[in-house]
Amino acid sequence: MIKLSLLAAAALLTASSAMAQDAAPEPVHDDFAPPPIVMSTEHPDEEAVEPYARSNANAGATPFEGRAMFDAFHGQAGIDRIVDDMVARNVADPRISPIFAASDLVRLRRTLKEQFCFILGGDCAYSGMAMAASHADLGLQPSDMGALVENLQLAMGAEGVPFAVQNRFLAKLAPMKRDVVTR
Amino acid sequence: MFGVIAECRSPNDETTLKRSLRLTAAAVALFASALGLAGTASAQVFYRLPEARTGGKLLLTGGVSTVEGSGGGGIATWALTTGYGAEDGVGGNVHGTYVHLPDYEFRSIGAAVGLWDRVELSIARQEFDTGDTGALLGLGQGFTFTQDVIGVKVKVLGDAIYDSGGWMPQIAVGVQHKSNDQGAIITAVGGKDDEGTDVYVAASKLFLGQSVLVSGAVRWTKANQTGLLGFGGDRNDDMEPQFEGSVGYLLSRNLVVGAEYRTKPDNLGFAKEDDWVDIYAAYALNKHLSVTVAWADLGSIATFDDQRGVYVSLQVGF
């Protein structure tokens, strides 16, 4: 009798776990392997990306006129420090760090530095993708955008960029939300 | 379960032991299968629920708590949804506000929630304490008007913070239902009702490049001193549009300073009513605690002129 009921229990357990498995996604193929990482020929320390049309318009904002904003960010050296600091904060930020887990951070830092330099009125060309294209598969939510802006604010503050100047720059970036946030 | 087995330890009680084990096994099996089913079902339910992240907005962009409980400045309503939940999140807060005037004291406590940066629900209890003035007015020492305000605000369109490219503000509509506990006194001074409902449309915009927030609202109301002296009166008993405006300048991520103005009806014959004005500073220590201090000029209240004083408000939330 005990054996019977234990058998019944085992059967029910198996049935329920089988039901749970029904909801799980299709099992991956046995011979699954991630695609090999191909390095870029143009930037040997970056991963290769699908070809795309390059244009400064991809930066997503018109640049400031004159050099005042570029200088207020302490030139290219200041922009480099801000981008490095912001990316480091993002990677360490538990709210958004998973977003960067599969990112090529070397390429991300380079294109961000180009983008900031271009928008701030430095003599840079932007070689990265358009905002909609580069964020299409990230599935970012509004709260992710908020966290990113906060980390950029902290990085600009650490560089000593005055708050009013930070906001002039952020006003150029803010409308990108509609391209960056996809859900 | 162990208790059941322990009770049946005696070998003479084999039948009972078997039965207990059988029951236990069946119970375990049932529980396990229920868990499996519930797991699948709840996963489906949660998949359909909106996200409820917290803290997605930037500091101070939910506003502080108005004296009527909704998100805004101190006396002017904003179109922004209270709390720090972005479109994928929720926020909420409680507030306590104290205004010290020459002849009166005003206190308010309340709570509000913001849902997906779309809907705001708020509740507030206001106390207008006449103190020594109560005796002079013939109401009695420390006579206090108490008013409860429940409010709903819904964002209609726009994004006050991120749409910094154009002129389009964020627009919201709202309703506030107010009920005052001093119906008899309100009637005695010429008021028509101890309950009333305000309806408003608010528009707010952050000019981010200039670090300036501008907000305006039109409120249809017949509230006397926002309802603290009832609704409607011997001079006028119709809903009239009134204006609430505010400007703020962002000095840092944590600190905004500015001014507010609010026009009000003048329905009661026994005492004229003035517009309200204040200058304020709101400081957010973090997304959980903010303090607002203002210098407010509330004009003449119940025949006592020049009611100017300090406004202090504390907001705790997420």
Class derived from helix and strand content of chain A: mainly alpha
Kindly report the CATH topology of the domain at 65-180 in chain A.
Answer: Globin-like
Dominant shape of chain A: globular
CATH class type of the domain at 65-180 in chain A? Mainly Alpha
Trace the largest sheet of chain B across and list its strands.
3-4-5-6-7-8-9-10-11-12-13-14
Largest sheet of chain A: none
Please give the number of β-strands of chain A.
0
Overall pLDDT of chain A, averaged?
A: 88
Order of helices and strands of chain B: HHEEEEEHEEHEEEEEEE
Radius of gyration of chain B: 27 Å
Report the β-strand fraction of chain B as a percent range: 35-45%
Model description:
The complex is a heterodimer of chains A (183) and B (318). By secondary structure, chain A is mainly α. Chain A is built from eight helices and no strands. Chain B has a twelve-stranded antiparallel beta barrel with strand order 3-4-5-6-7-8-9-10-11-12-13-14. A two-stranded antiparallel sheet of chain B has the order 1-2. Chain B folds into two domains: 47 residues; 254 residues, Porin, CATH 2.40.160. The longest helix of chain B is centred in the first third of the chain and has 35 residues. Chain B is globular and about 80 Å long. In chain B, 17% of the residues lie in helices and 42% in strands. In chain B, 45% of the residues are buried. Classes of the chains: A mainly alpha (183), B alpha+beta (318). The interface between A and B is large, with 39 and 42 residues.
Write a brief structural summary:
The complex is a heterodimer of chains A (183) and B (318). Chain A is an all-alpha fold.
Tags for this entry?
heterodimer, A: 183 residues, mainly alpha, 0% strand, B: alpha+beta, Porin, two-stranded antiparallel sheet, 4 helices, 17% helix, globular, disordered N terminus
